[in-house]
Design goal:
Elements lengths: L2 H5 L4 H5 L16 H15 L4 H8 L3 H9 L6 H10 L10
Helix pairs in contact: 4-5
Length: 97
């Protein structure tokens, strides 16, 4: 488990046993956008048993970009989010409320 996951309070076994669906990961409305994205990305990556390097290869970027996203220190473009969603075989939904 990465230090980012430990720092964010993720328990790998808890998420492995959590259930089949990655869609159960819900954003926390009290967190900023970057922190919410970081939390969801780390969780999905662990549920899919992917390293940062493996995910980076699937997206077509570097491990350091994935690490910055997971730390909440990077705001990705919409194009990058589309590539990320495709790599994870997920839909991307952006909405205003």
């Amino acid at each position: 488990m990465s230090w980012q996951a430990i720092a964010m309070g993720f328990d790998y076994q808890q998420f492995r046993n959590w259930g089949e669906s990655r869609s159960k990961v819900k954003p926390d409305p009290d967190k900023n956008l970057e922190a919410t994205l970081a939390e969801k990305l780390v969780t999905i990556r662990y549920l899919d048993d992917l390293s940062q390097e493996e995910l980076a290869r699937k997206v077509g970027t570097t491990q350091s970009v994935i690490a910055r996203l997971e730390s909440g220190r990077h705001t990705p473009s919409i194009r990058f989010l589309k590539n990320l969603a495709e790599a994870l075989e997920m839909d991307l939904s952006i909405e205003f409320r």
